[in-house]
C-alpha cells in the first residue's frame, strides 16, 4: 500500500484524517517507532514518545493532530487522526492477514459424533473430538486436539486454538476466540464439609455461557455453575492464566489481566479493568467502570461506578496511597514518639524531684 491507500483505508474508520507529506511513498510493513526504517509505518499516541519523531527512520507516522511534526526528518509523511493508537491497530490488522491454524475442511483423524451438526465452511483439525449433539456455526475453526464434550453449542466465526477443552452443555456465542489450553465448563469448586473432616462433592449441574465477541487467553479456566450459568458477557477480554469460578458474571467489555483469580458468585460490571494477580473473595459485586490495580485483594463489594481501587484489602486508590505514604513514614514517626516519651520521662522526673 502507498500512503494514499492507507489514508483511504483508515477513512473507513475515521471521519477526519489529514495527510502531511507525500501520499505516493510505498509502505511495506508496520514497525516499532524506535526500529522503523524506510518503507515502514509506525505511530505516536503518547506525548512522552514525541521525542522519537525526530529520530525515527519511518516513512510514515500515524500521529495526533497536535504532534510536533515540524521536528521530523525530511521526507517523512504523517497521517493525523484523533486516535493514533486505534488507527495503527487497524493497520496492523491489515498487514497481519489471516493466521493459519489448520487446513480447511474436516480432518480425517477428527472424531465427529454422528449427531453433531456442523454449519457451512466449518474447519475441524487433526485429532479433534466433537461430542454428541454438538452444534457448530458457520465459518468456525476448531483447531487440532480440541475436545468438545456433548451438547456444546458454538456460534459462527469462532476460533478455537489447539488443545482447548469445552465441557458438556457450554454455550459459546459468535466471533469468540479461545486460545490454547483453556478449559471452559469444568466443575466448580464445591464440596460440603463433614463432621469427620471429609468432604462430599456438590454436583455442578449448571453451565457456562460465553457471549459474542469475547476473547479468552491461553490456559485460562472458566468453571461451570453449580446451578444456572457462569456468564462472560459480550465483548469481554480475558488474558492468559485467569481463573473464573462457578456462578460468576463478568460484564460486557470488561478486561481481566493475567493470573487474576475470581472466586465463586462474583459479579463484575461492564467496562471494568482488572489488573494482573488481583484476587477476589466470593459473592462480591463490582459496579461498572471500576479499575482494579494489579495484586489487589478485593474482600468487599464496590457499588459506586467509576472508582479506582488498589491494595490489600482493596480500597479507593486515594485512601490507599495516603496510607502507603503514612506507612513509609512510620520509622520517622516512631523516632519522634521515642523522643517525646524521653522528654516526658525527664519532665516527670523533674516534677517528682
From TrEMBL:
Pfam families given in the database record: GMPPB_C (PF25087), Hexapep (PF00132), Hexapep_2 (PF14602), LpxD (PF04613)
Source organism superkingdom: Bacteria
GO CC annotation, single: membrane
Pathway as given in its UniProt record: Bacterial outer membrane biogenesis; LPS lipid A biosynthesis
Boundaries of every UDP-3-O-[3-hydroxymyristoyl] glucosamine N-acyltransferase non-repeat region domain copy: 25-93
CDD domains: LbH_LpxD
Catalysed reaction, written as an equation: a UDP-3-O-[(3R)-3-hydroxyacyl]-alpha-D-glucosamine + a (3R)-hydroxyacyl-[ACP] = a UDP-2-N,3-O-bis[(3R)-3-hydroxyacyl]-alpha-D-glucosamine + holo-[ACP] + H(+)
Signal peptide (residue range): none
Mannose-1-phosphate guanyltransferase C-terminal domain mapped to chain residues: 106-184
Coiled-coil positions: 323-350
GO biological process: lipid A biosynthetic process
EC assignment: 2.3.1.191
Active site: 246 (proton acceptor)
Key words, A-Z: Acyltransferase, Coiled coil, Lipid A biosynthesis, Lipid biosynthesis, Lipid metabolism, Repeat, Transferase
Molecular functions per Gene Ontology: N-acyltransferase activity; UDP-3-O-[(3R)-3-hydroxyacyl]-glucosamine N-acyltransferase activity
Quaternary organization: Homotrimer.
Described function: Catalyzes the N-acylation of UDP-3-O-acylglucosamine using 3-hydroxyacyl-ACP as the acyl donor. Is involved in the biosynthesis of lipid A, a phosphorylated glycolipid that anchors the lipopolysaccharide to the outer membrane of the cell.
Family: Belongs to the transferase hexapeptide repeat family. LpxD subfamily.
HAMAP family: LpxD
Protein name per Swiss-Prot or TrEMBL: UDP-3-O-acylglucosamine N-acyltransferase
Organism from which the protein derives: Chlorobaculum parvum
Taxon lineage: Bacteria, Pseudomonadati, Chlorobiota, Chlorobiia, Chlorobiales
Amino acid at each position: 500500500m502507498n500512503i494514499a491507500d492507507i489514508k483511504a483505508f483508515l477513512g473507513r474508520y475515521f471521519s477526519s484524517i489529514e495527510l502531511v507529506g507525500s501520499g505516493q511513498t510505498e509502505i511495506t510493513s508496520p514497525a516499532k517507532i524506535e526500529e522503523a526504517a524506510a518503507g515502514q509505518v509506525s505511530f505516536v499516541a503518547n506525548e512522552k514518545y514525541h521525542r522519537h519523531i525526530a529520530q525515527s527512520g519511518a516513512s510514515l507516522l500515524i500521529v495526533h493532530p497536535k504532534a510536533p511534526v515540524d521536528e521530523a526528518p525530511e521526507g517523512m509523511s504523517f497521517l493525523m487522526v484523533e486516535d493514533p493508537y486505534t488507527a495503527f491497530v487497524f493497520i496492523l490488522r491489515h498487514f497481519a492477514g489471516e493466521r493459519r491454524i489448520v487446513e480447511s475442511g474436516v480432518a480425517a483423524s477428527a472424531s465427529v459424533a454422528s449427531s453433531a451438526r456442523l454449519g457451512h465452511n466449518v474447519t475441524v483439525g487433526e485429532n479433534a473430538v466433537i461430542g454428541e449433539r454438538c452444534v457448530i456455526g458457520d465459518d468456525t475453526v476448531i483447531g487440532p486436539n480440541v475436545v468438545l464434550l456433548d451438547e456444546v453449542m458454538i456460534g459462527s466465526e469462532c476460533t478455537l486454538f489447539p488443545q482447548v477443552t469445552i465441557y458438556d452443555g457450554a454455550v459459546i456465542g459468535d466471533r469468540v476466540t479461545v486460545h490454547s489450553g483453556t478449559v471452559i465448563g469444568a466443575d466448580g469448586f464445591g464440596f460440603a464439609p463433614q463432621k469427620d473432616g471429609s468432604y462430599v462433592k456438590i454436583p455442578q449441574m449448571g453451565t457456562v455461557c460465553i457471549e459474542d465477541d469475547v476473547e479468552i487467553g491461553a490456559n485460562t479456566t472458566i468453571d461451570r455453575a453449580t446451578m444456572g450459568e457462569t456468564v462472560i458477557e459480550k465483548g469481554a477480554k480475558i488474558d492468559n492464566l485467569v481463573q473464573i469460578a462457578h456462578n460468576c458474571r463478568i460484564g460486557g467489555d470488561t478486561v481481566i489481566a493475567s493470573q487474576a483469580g475470581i472466586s465463586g458468585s462474583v459479579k463484575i460490571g461492564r467496562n471494568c479493568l482488572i489488573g494482573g494477580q488481583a484476587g477476589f473473595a466470593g459473592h462480591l459485586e463490582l459496579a461498572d467502570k471500576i479499575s482494579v490495580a494489579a495484586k489487589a485483594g478485593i474482600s468487599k463489594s464496590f457499588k459506586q461506578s467509576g472508582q479506582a481501587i488498589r491494595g490489600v484489602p482493596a480500597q479507593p486508590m486515594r485512601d490507599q496511597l495516603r496510607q502507603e505514604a503514612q506507612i513509609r513514614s512510620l520509622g520517622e514517626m516512631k523516632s519522634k514518639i521515642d523522643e517525646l516519651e524521653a522528654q516526658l520521662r525527664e519532665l516527670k522526673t523533674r516534677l517528682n524531684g
